[in-house]
Amino acid sequence: MTKVTKILALSFVLAVPTIGILACYIKWQDQERLKQVSLEIKTSGVHPLSVLKTIKGTEHFLIYSNYDMESLRKFERFFEGFYHYFQTEYFDPNFNKPLKIYLFKNNDTYGPYAKRRGVSYTPGFYSLTEEAVFVNAEDDGLSIAIHEVVHHFVQNNVVLPPSMWIREGIPMFFERFIAYFDEHDELVLTFGYFSSRRYPEIGDIIRKYTIDDILIAAGQYSHSSCSLMFLLYQKGFLKPFIQQVPSLPFSDYHGFAALENVYGKPIRDIEKDWKSFVESHLSDEEACVTTESLLMTHEEYQQWWQDNQDRLIWNESEQKFQLRRQPSNGIMAEFNIEK
Q1: Can you tell me the distance from the alpha carbon of 116 to that of 8, in angstroms, rounded to the nearest whole number?
Q2: Is the pLDDT of residue 269 over 80?
Q3: CA distance 122 to 141
Q4: Closest Cα to residue 321, out of 337, 332, 307, 306?
Q5: How many CB atoms lie within 10 A of CB 234?
Q6: Residues 78, 206: Cα–Cα separation, whole Å
């Protein structure tokens, strides 16, 4: 029995009861927070979400916000566009009912509600019990929104939660994006952007630990495990891997067998590729294409591209923008989302 097999066998034995406990704990935690909010409503007679007076319903989302209706229409098209993108490229989110999104315009309105829920430490969260996302849209809030929406996509299609590196790594991959409306007013979405500032800390971790250590204890090394998603994306293996997540068996709780299957190599070879991938980014002086997620109108995008075309090119094979390493006549290409 190899070391990897022993680790996987032991983690499976430990994981089966733990998974059920985790799901129950998440629901209990949500319910306790809701009790506190319900108590406050009874005491004050005012619902803490009453500040979100604008409501926009779509096929798959019900958005409550204190943004004006024009802004909300843009967010509506963005969320629906992302739903159809994910459905086309990965798997069907398969909603039985619309996901509720409570989109606060700023921290002045989000902060008091988050404090009541006991989550003031985070700019957004997903409630499994309510099937709802709560987000402060200020300061790159759409990144948090997409992260939480993907949590719902995954949660809605698995029997029990998968390993931490999978259930956090997938949302973390999608949380940084460049999106805009083209000249035909169609939404264009691009992903695959990771902050270069993360690589030094990741480099220290992957030199010290094995892939088994990092992925099994992913809660401690979330950004390190997330970086594996970017390697899969670069190699063209992210799509088939994510497509296997809804059907992962208990025996492959950590997804190692699925990983080897889509990659076509044993876990030790994947580990070597991953470490080389991270090391190559450590030498990059500026591997960061964007420091925040972008959702632009066509006019905003044209100005953004004019400002950045000397710095960036379009990578057709990876379907994303990347830094221009040398003079290039790279031709722009787009992935269009049908309305």
Answers
A1: 40
A2: yes
A3: 11
A4: 332
A5: 16
A6: 36
Confidence band for 220, pLDDT divided at 50, 70 and 90: confident
The neighbour count for residue 104, using CB atoms within 10 Å, is: 27
Q: Tell me what the mean pLDDT of segment 248-271 comes to.
A: 95
- Give the bridge partners for 64, in sequence order: 55, 102
pLDDT in tens, 289-320: 888 899 999 999 999 999 999 999 999 988 99
Structure tokens at 24: 């129950």
Report the Cα 34 to chain-centroid distance in Å.
25
> Strands 61-65 and 54-57: what pairing?
antiparallel
Q: What is the pLDDT of residues 142-186, one digit of tens each?
A: 999 999 999 999 998 998 788 999 999 999 999 999 999 999 999
Measure the CA dihedral 289/295/298/302, to 10°.
-20
3-state secondary structure the chain: CCHHHHHHHHHHHHHHHHHHHHHHHHHHHHHHHHHHHHHHHHHHCCCCCCCCCEEEECCCEEEEECCCHHHHHHHHHHHHHHHHHHHHHCCCCCCCCCEEEEEECCHHHHHHHHHHHCCCCCCEEEECCCCEEEEECCCCHHHHHHHHHHHHHHHCCCCCCCCHHHHHHHHHHHCCEEEEECCCCCEEEEECCCCHHHHHHHHHHHHHCCHHHHHHCCCCCHHHHHHHHHHHHHHCCHHHHHHHHHHCCHHHCCCHHHHHHHHCCCHHHHHHHHHHHHHHHHCCCCCCCCCCCEEECHHHHHHHHHHHCCCEEEECCCCEEEECCCCCCCCCCCCEECC
Comparing 293 with 21, the larger pLDDT belongs to 293
Report the distance separating Cα 110 and Cα 52, nearest Å: 10
Amino acid at 145: A
The span from the first CA to the last CA of the chain, in angstroms, equals 53
Q: Which two tokens stand for residue 261?
A: 């299957």
Alpha-carbon distance of 134 to 139, in angstroms, equals 15
Residues 259, 240 contacting (CB under 8 angstroms)? no
Please name the residues in contact with 208: beta carbons below 8 A apart, sequence gap of 6 or more.
none
